[in-house]
Structures are given as structure tokens and as C-alpha cells.
Write a structure and sequence with these properties.
single chain; alpha+beta; two-stranded antiparallel ribbon; 359 residues; 9% strand
Length: 359
Amino acid sequence: MGKQADLVRAGMLASYLDLARSVQLDTLPLLKSVGLSRLDLSNPDALISAAAVTELLERSAEAASIQDFGLRLARLHGLADIGPIGLLVREEPTVGHAIRVAERYLRLHSDSLALRLDEHENASVLRIRYLSTTLGRTRQATELVVGTVFRTLNVLVGSAWSPEAVCFSHPAPTARTIHAAFFKTRMLFDSAFNGFMLRASDLAAPIRTSEAAMPRYIKHYVEEIVAQPIVTVDATVRQLVFALLPSGQCTSATVAKHLGVDRKTMYTRLAAEGETFSSILSKARIELARRHIRTGRKSLTETAQLLGFSGLATFSRWFRNEFGTSATHWQKDQQQKPAAPWRPASAPLDEGDAPFALD
């Protein structure tokens, strides 16, 4: 994986210091514990470690005993906090157009954040994915990202706008939170994805800030900035693999088609970065297997499907070949181990450790 594959804009932590102080957190040791400093947050366009951001949010929520820390941070975000993409989406005529623009440029600009809009005649699904190399805890970062998308659309369309439902793959909070007041719509936890269920009218909602007279040279300049890729081909392939695995259609041909190239071209580009499609597929499956089996929230049959295997028997043979033991025995062994301390993404992983990816 390229060095830049796990970076996000520091603007993701806009207002973090204010929120942390408002709940009596000592920000200096928290930042230091994940390898960040206040200086890292001073420039919203600077790129910082996605893994550090993820862990900082989790540690902050834990220290403040607040289960909705990430969502509270999203509530403080404005259009300016999402960077140049904010200037592009505000010029689109409808929510649907704005999402398509964000989907396109996020894919070019970062592999840690991704949108995917699946449109159907009566209902559509917007999947919001945050990928980072972590040791598994992603609730706060996920809610920050989903909440920021929702907040952005509210700014563009008006506070009355809301999707048909908001979905999270993690469990519902066990304490009182701001979720209901923030989203003002149905909440679906333990869902198959993170994001929104949308009606046709939600996508057709007009953007009130849209100005067709935006100078063409300014728009072109913004597009040029946003389109500067900070990801490598192997990072993009990895992202597509995670998206396609549950469908059972994660083939090299399908991934190459999504990249807009033929398989030979994709193989050549991956080889130039010291990777192969098979190695990326294998690493992705290992990461997902570790995550789902360690948490125990998915059955082995469900896990097999999420990893793109045709059946449990095929998955079991693959797992034993990769891990040297059965999935059941590995799960019991992991649950008996104490939680591993967090380390910055630049630190080497010990044998047995592996990063996790958020679906």
C-alpha cells in the first residue's frame, strides 16, 4: 500500500479542540497519544493519518463517557470544512447531482472516504464508507463522516431535508445521545451498510445555494485542485475490492471495468507499485475475516458471504490455509487475549496483528 493510502484532510477534525474542551477533555495528551499535535489541526487542507483520527475520536469518546462524540463533532461542521469539494457540490442543481459530484471527486482524491449512490426507481441507497488502518474501533469516525454528509446536505438544501432512514452497521448506543435530534428521521442500527436510504424526492431536492453564474475559470480551478489524486492504483483497487466482495462479483475483470481500463492495464499498473490483484484480494479478505470473527457479531456463514465465498466449506478451507487453524478456534483464542494497545499507522505490526477496514 502506498504511503498516502491512509491519509485524510485535517479538516475532518475541524472544531475538535472546541468540542473536546467543552466536555472537559485535556486535548494535549489525547493528541500526543495518537501521534498528533495541535499544529497538525491548524491547517484544514493538511493531510494527516486516518488511523490517528479514528483512534483519537474513540479515545475522546471514552474519556468523556460520551457515545456520540463523533456525531457531536459533525454537528459543528460547515460547508467549508469539507474543502474544495464543498465549492463544487454547492453549484449543482439537486441533491442527486451533488452526491454524484462528491462520489466522483472523493474517489479521485482519497481512498479513506468513499460514497456510492445506488439509484432505483422508488428508493435509492447512499453508502458512506470510511476506510482506515485501525485495530477495529470505528464507531465515532463513521458517525462523524455520516453526520458530516448529512450536515452538508442540510446546509445545501435546508434544515427541513432528511433522508428516509439513516443506517449504521454498528449497534445502537446504550445511553442517551443526540442521534434522534440530529437526524430527525428513522435510525437503523446493525444495518448492512453505513449511509442513507433515500426517496426519489430526496434526490430531487433543489440546492438553494446553486449559482449557475459561478465563473467558469473558478470552477475549473476548483476541479483541478480536487482531482489531484493522493491515492495510488493499489489503494483504489483495494477500495473497490472491499465494495465488491459481498456481492460475490469481485473479479479482476469487474474491478478493471470500474477503473475504466482493461485487466492487462490494471495488472501493469499494480505491478509498477509492487502489487498484484490476487495479493490485494487476499489481504482484504484477511482483514475482514479478522474483524468479523473477532467481534463475533456475524456468523461464519455470513462472514463467508461478506468475503465473497460461495459457501461455508470454501471459506473454512481458505481460513485454515491462511490462519493455520479453524475459524472457531481462532475466534476463541482472540477473545481470550487482552485488547492490544493502539500504535500509530507508521509503527510495524506485531505478528498476529492486522489492520481493519470498515464496510
